[in-house]
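Q: Could you fold this chain for me?
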Amino acid sequence: MGGCFSDLRGGKEGVGIGMVEDDDNGGGGHNDAVHHFYMAQGFQQMFTQLQLSLSASNLLDRDIASKSDPMVVVYAKKKEGIVEELGRTEVILNCLNPQWIQKINVTFQFEIVQQLEFHVYDVDTQYHCIPTKALTLRDQDFIGMANCTLSEIVTKKSQSLTLRLQSKNGYSSSRNLGALNVHAEETISSRNAVEMIFHCTNLDNKDIFSKTDPFIRISRIVESGGSVPICKTEVIDNNLNPIWKPLCLSSKQFGSKENPLIIECFDFNSNGNHVLVGKMQKSILDLEKLNKEKIGANFVIQSSNHSKEKVLKGKLFVDQYCEIEQFSFIDYISSGFELNFMVAVDFTASNGNPYQPDSLHYIDVSGRLNSYQKAIMEVGEVIQFYDSDRLFPAWGFGGRTHSGTISHCFNLNGSSGGSEVEGIEGIMDAYTSALHNVTLAGPTLFGPIINMAAQMASHSLSSFNCIKYHVLLIITDGVVTDLQETIDALVKASDLPLSILIVGVGNADFKSMEVLDADNGHRLESSNGRIATRDIVQFVPMRDIQSGQISVVQALLEELPDQFLSFMRSKDIKPLPSHFPHPPSNH
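A: Sure. Below is the predicted structure, expressed as structure tokens.
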């Protein structure tokens, strides 16, 4: 039935039960910050936000001792053959007929022919504990691919399209690789969500030598009459009376409170052949009623002669029901919250002699920009849009200043007072001037810069109204010396209104940078054992941006809204009421 979902615990974690904005596809789907930026630049195309639900049938089995563990990667095909990744589904273990829960967000633009490409992979067992976003695709077994335009899907009456999988070169294969079904639905724009806690009693025991390992799967019935799964709880081992962790469902997932939902309880099996314990059909309204009346609902199962349903002893209870309002990134920004950007530039000797053409800091008399200047200019367009006063604290690190000492956090403008410069032009001027007054040295220490940014963010947090969120941009050639000290500083700063964007320039090995960007699902741990409250780092290699693999706007803002929202929610900070005047901009 395709209900076994891979994750950090071998298919036993929940899927689709988090907060609204946490639906990270790991690619170029809808992003509030990106959309807001483009709209403000005058791009007013007619568009609709869609979610793609994916399922497959009769997939080719790439495994020998078990079945394939499939995952889909969705791409948008751009001009000149460039493809942009839109997102990835979760991995489903041991299943040739999967129904994926993870949706793919895509913006439908009526006036543009939008080519989509779907790649189906069999994920190797050794990678099952790695989040799909961090998987290297060339290490996985390719099953097949399919192409279509987005308009082909949305113009179908059922808004569903079945595509036959082809080989990697796009040609039909002599073997049956399977079929992929794509269903599109318009995204509901709503802040409403419900948080619930489920528990069951007297579930049937489906195991012989132990007890049932139950999990709940919830699916929404769609207009065409079929259903699409929207979430799954974690698996509780050996328990006929399980209590699951709280699950949060947004109206984007369940539609309206009256919409019928199919709630199924399964006994988990690692081979993918999960056994149905029982099911029921309830709406969110029905679940709310169960909570209010403190009663349970019986599961049913098809009787052996299929003539009627058998009512089971097993019951579902809703221990907690709470309606909550989930605010978006734009809700905060439009109500008066500000992003304050800070910039730090690497002046270590690993960049090369700035007077030599092969140096990353070389200033070309012809006006051609060096790697740092390109990064400042390309990043700057996005940065200054979100910083209302355009006053940027700007620092350098790893250089020997005019005092003769090596500094790991000096004012880029050379001032002994304030570090702020005005606009991107101010950063460029301060940077050029610093190259004439600062000697490249080392080592590369991020700790002092991060601590300085954290100090500013901490001051903002202690103010009466925490309306400022800080973003530190570090431009570096990627050779980090104080890795553990940097991790310690990041863990300490993870509880502050701060995100850190690291832009790598040049062709160095950026492995150490990727360690700091906790996209592998493991939060950073400090030397004293403290775990980071949240992921606050994003690493972007400029070479990927300049090669056209990703757009600069998408790359810079991909994770920022989620990082911003995770902080605001952790502190229970809400957008300013609309009748409040916007506070003045100052640092």
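A (continued): Confidence is low (pLDDT under 50) at residues 1-8, 20-28, 579-587.
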